[in-house]
User: What shape does this take?
Amino acid sequence: MAAETVQFYLMGKPHAVPKGLTIQKAMEYAGFRQLRGCGCRGGFCGACGTVYRTAGDYKLKVGLACQTVVEDQMYLALIPFFPAVKANYSIEDLPPTAETIISLYPEVLRCVGCNSCRKVCPQEIEVMRYIAAAQRGDIARVANLSFDCLMCGLCASRCPAEIVQYNVAILARRLYSRHIAKPAVHLAARVEEIERGGCDADLASMMAATDADLKRMYAARVIEPEEL
Amino acid sequence: MGYDAQLLESIRRVEATRSTRMGQQFSRLTADEKTALLKGYHPDYKAGTMRELAVGPNAGDRVPHELADLLEGRSRIDPDFDLSCIDYDVDVLVIGGGGAGTSAAILAHERGAKVLLVTKLRLGDANTMMAQGGIQAADKPNDSPAIHYLDVMGGGGFQNIPELVAALTKDAPAAIKWLEELGAMFDKQPDGTMVSIHGGGTARRRMHSARDYSGAEIMRTLRDEFRNRQIPYREFTSAVELLLDSKGQCAGAVLCDMETEELRVVRAKAVILATGGMGRLHVQQFPCTNHYGATADGLVIGYRAGAKMVFMDAVQYHPTGVAYPEQIVGQLVTEKVRGLGAQLVNAKGECFIFDLETRDTVSSAIIRECLERKNGVQTNTGMHGVWLDSPMIEMIRGDGTIAKALPAMMRQYARFDIDMRRLPILVYPTQHYQNGGLLIAADSETVVPNLYAAGEVSGGVHGRNRLMGNSLLDIIVFGRRAGMAVAERIGNVKQGTLTLDHVRGYQADLMAAGRDSGQKAPMLLPNYLRPETIGRRGNGQG
Assistant: This one.
């Protein structure tokens, strides 16, 4: 049985492939062995950001090649890399303020509010809104709005103000987590307990246990109930 | 897209039993029941899927054919390759740019070592980036490293190497604290308390998470820190052989630029292999959850250099890989979905296993349910699966839980017009993790002097089956240990003359044993071209 085929254009050149494949698998079906533009193949790494147009539509569309189904008459190019500025900093020394962000990435103030970044984000993140929050120094908001960012770079590729949004976002998430979110007290206490040897005896007795003893203890474990 | 009529019909049966299943749990298996289930249905026990190696430190040990084909393959370089022209002369060469390699590089660099990190794709292109569910650490008052230790041993079939398990569980809280201080955004209560839930096989709720981007959050934080420190690195650069010296110590590597194919020589006082696992070998033709570069390269070059492997006959199949839609078959559905309360349900709407048994057990139960008991669902492309009843999560934990705790999963399905908040999702086991690897000591050193291994490429800590949340932990703990150990020791290393004699000798041993798969190894990248295409390529090669 011949499968239904679609024709897509990779950087202008047509290829016929069976219907239903992702763009990534369609490229492989068409004979391309990938290097750049292929990473996790599961929607997490941002290597395969793709821009495309479809027949009869002026709109520029985006997707991850590994998560987007190829369509008939899709006209596409991968953007596996985009030149970006990245500031160097020591996160522990930075105050979590607007001034910090603006001193490291002054271009955030150039945002013209065009919303191209939001339109081009394959994760549908509210990019422009987090840049506005960054200008105000609302770092918690930047961290939360940007959390699902894959750092694929498509926002930066379209920004008329030449902002590298995803680098601003990771700075904000690290500032938030390091300086605004409260540290875990129980974690620090356990680390301190371990450092002074407070857990050594129990671990040593576990390590000394016979196979039979371990199996008996394992079968007798009391499982902490779910807390709802 | 969404579900077709046949799958929607099956979903009705899942919905019909949901209210009676709520609040009930399938009972846990006894140790004997678990053993019988594994022996009957786990893919590791399937006849004809492995063979004994004839050559090297593990001669006589069984490994999957797909790995054996690489270990019995041919070097990519001539052992007479000229090593006199040294392109990079460093203290520490780190091979691999995932969580383990990046952690190791940061620690070694911080302690004054001259570091070079190479990675065959981009920095951060690694399974670390794809880990969703979380990272374990015994940091709550009702928990302890010893309790964590017992869970790890039980999960691994009580065969794990005790010193490694002790290192893993004892360093775990410090690993989390390090990440917290680097600014990784863990899920927390307003007072700073870590949100933590159960994973399969845990006695305490010690799974820390960053929504369901746990690994991505850790990886992007480490990558940002690594770049801030301006540690030298080269992307799209693989290692095709390790170098030994005339004293039998590891002393560098031959690198290959993945874009220009130029070979370069690195001399190093220590080498840290952090190359990840073998998911992309598709053992027994399973689909896999792994990133593009998970092709066992570190095992291949490490083994040729004399490193010993352990537990390479133990492959982890994640119980819940995507079985539908076809486009993303094999991709991961995080164990956190079960941790939050979704049950596994067969085509009749019945539970058939306690949902948070260890992964080997749950996978075996799903395979039995589908292939033996014929209680699975079959899609229009022939994939088997059982339902993972995700709508239960919000019935238990309230509206909005899935968007908040599982945004990546929700998005993955929404892209194919499936709303996992309303409808269950179809899953089947998928190749996920290499339980074994290169044998290391607690300081991450392999049996080859000055050759270290950290993360999935190493083996022993997880025994025959890793628990959820212990691989993100493994990469941080042993990455850091490797970085610290090498920084401490490089001052005492006296290097001899660089050599590839071990490669020459290994190839001769293979010849003598009559083993030659004809494959070039390491594989570097999988080949997903169609056989028809490969046959038609101008050079006749794939």
Observations:
- The first strand of chain A starts at residue 5 and ends at 10.
- The longest helix of chain A spans residues 165-180.
- The mean pLDDT of chain A is 96.
- Chain A has three domains: 5-78, 91-180, 185-216.
